[in-house]
Design goal:
The protein is of the alpha+beta class and 533 residues long. Helix content is 38%, strand content 23%. It contains 19 helices and 20 strands. Strand 12 (308-310) and strand 13 (313-315) form a beta hairpin. The chain is elongated, with a radius of gyration of 30 Å. It starts with 14 loop residues before the first helix and ends with a helix.
């Protein structure tokens, strides 16, 4: 074969040209490099489990035949015989190929096999002289030629950029990554099983919406040519799900994709998965009970009896989860940080709170955390409470904890507490310093809801780009009457992080969003040229 070869695709390594030559050589032998199917009798793991306890003599006497397939991870030619290791993602198994067993043609095919190619192998289960369980092959079938070589660190790809951009390589090289996504799949399956068992109906709501609603977030916008209108990728399915409750579907849920045009960090990705569910005749406390049972059930499904750990620190999903008022959490955190006592009722009094925020003890507490004390005085009262909680109380919440009684100002879709109209009948569930669920007694007073939307429009006009917009149709739906209803949104990705011990959301999303690679947008030069033309 010539050494002066051109890669089949611009930017591919020179080795690709040699692999292309081998592909053509396979065709010259009458071998189809990309056949349609291959019938297996066992997966690699099934072979390993079924015959794990058999000795070489027992296997010889049994003469069990199998048909297996996998990617070639290792190849060791030894003259008239060769060893290779196959992998199928779940397990690995050695094959032993002799020229006398597969014939000249079969051995020539083996010679054209590169690391990363897929092959099928039929033969007898045996043990080598060193005792390794193997398959002695008498029929070798070529299944797919890999034109690109595997990662250099085949047994452990570590480069973070490559792992996230080319998740297929990550899955090939790192078995623990595959395990993470299998656990995530088991978690989602348990969530569905739990909701179905409790009488909920799974539904689907629009992903493109004429009005972005259901959360305080900046949306992505697109344009529909046939309708001649802008549409928004949903930030939440909430308002559509509650319309269904108005229509008489008393228990509904959706496992949905949401899109928010916000920052990217360890806990945020522009598109993410959530569970949202709504229950007629429930209030906030009923929803908390169900959410607690759901999270505990998902943890048992993924972890079994094994203890949970996150960031090297134990994490307990033992129920019941503590429940604490937001103002109490703030007071406890400030008292522990500054040693200065603060009464919970002072947080409800804007004047008293402003006085405390201007004091020396609070300024010192902020300085120790790298925060600007004066920044809190520039916020409205409700947002000030929320910011104090986020900066001082939230980092200390480790095991699952429900935080209740949020300011109404930051809860435009929640009912007020009957005994205190300054706070919403709402909860958030925090674990390891992260919010993973948000729920409340849903506001079903159409006129109150309309006024809340008007207040949000005023905030939007003042520069708050995350404030809610008016949704007259949703107000109209409430005008037809919605029963008392409790609802909750649960972050699928963040719960997956906790149950798999993953420190960043990118580790539990198969294809997280990334900045374009340096000097390119992920497309080939050829594709870019076609775009320009």
């Amino acid at each position: 074969m010539s050494d002066e070869l051109e890669a089949p695709v611009p930017g591919w390594p020179e080795e690709s040209a040699h692999r292309l030559q081998k592909l053509e050589a396979l065709r010259a032998l009458g071998v189809e490099p990309y056949p349609t199917r291959y019938e297996r009798s066992h997966s690699l793991a099934q072979v390993a489990v079924t015959w794990a306890g058999r000795s070489a003599e027992e296997l010889e006497a049994e003469g069990a035949r199998v048909r297996i397939a996998g990617r070639v991870l290792l190849k060791r030619p030894m003259g008239k015989a060769s060893f290779a290791t196959l992998g199928d993602g779940e397990s690995r198994l050695q094959i032993y190929v002799r020229r006398n067993d597969v014939g000249e043609h079969g051995y020539k095919v083996l010679d054209l096999v590169d690391l990363g190619d897929f092959v099928g192998a039929a033969g007898r289960v045996m043990r080598t002289r060193l005792g390794e369980l193997s398959v002695q092959v008498d029929e070798l079938t070529f299944l797919a030629k890999a034109l690109l070589p595997p990662p250099e660190k085949w047994h452990g790809l570590e480069d973070v950029e490559t792992r996230y951009r080319q998740r297929y390589l990550d899955l090939m090289a790192n078995p623990e990554v595959r395990a993470t996504f299998l656990k995530r799949g088991a978690m989602v399956a348990e969530i569905r099983r739990f909701m179905d068992a409790h009488g909920y109906v799974e539904v689907e709501t629009p992903m493109m919406q004429p009005i972005p609603g259901g959360a305080l977030a900046r949306p992505f916008v697109t344009h529909h040519n046939a309708l001649g209108m802008d549409l928004y990728l949903r930030v939440a399915p909430e308002l559509y799900l509650k319309r269904l409750t108005v229509g008489g579907l008393e228990r509904v849920y959706e496992i949905n994709r949401n899109f928010r045009n916000e920052g990217i960090d360890a806990q945020h990705n522009p598109e993410f998965s959530m569970l949202e569910f709504y229950t007629a005749y429930f209030d906030c406390r009923d929803v908390m009970d169900l959410t607690e049972a759901l999270v505990a059930s998902a943890a048992r499904r993924v972890l079994g009896e094994a203890p949970a750990s996150f960031g090297g620190r134990p994490l307990s999903f033992q129920t019941p989860f503590p429940r604490v008022r937001m103002v109490d959490a703030i007071v406890a955190a400030l008292a522990g940080d500054s040693g200065h006592g603060l009464e919970p009722r002072s947080l409800g009094d804007p004047a008293a709170l402003t006085g405390y925020l201007g004091g020396e003890s609070f300024r010192s507490a902020c300085a120790r955390r790298g925060l600007e004390a004066a920044a809190y005085t520039r916020l409205s009262h409700g947002k000030r409470i929320a910011q104090l909680f986020e900066d001082f109380a939230l980092p200390g919440l480790w095991d699952p904890t429900f935080v209740v009684d949020h300011p109404v100002e930051i809860s435009p879709l929640s009912k007020r507490r009957a005994d205190d109209h300054q706070v919403a009948d709402r909860f958030e569930l925090f674990v390891a310093g992260m919010e993973i669920a948000n729920g409340f007694s849903e506001l079903n007073d159409a006129l109150d809801q309309r006024q809340r939307f008007l207040d949000q429009l005023a905030a939007r006009a003042a520069g708050d780009l995350e404030a809610h917009v008016m949704d007259e149709d949703y107000v109209r739906a409430l005008g037809h009457g919605m029963p008392p209803t409790g609802g909750c949104g649960l972050g699928i990705d963040r719960l997956a992080m906790l149950l798999t011990g993953s420190r960043t959301i990118r580790d539990v999303i198969l294809f997280p969003h990334m900045r374009p690679e340096a000097g390119r947008d992920g497309t080939t030069t050829e594709t870019q040229r076609h775009r320009e033309e």
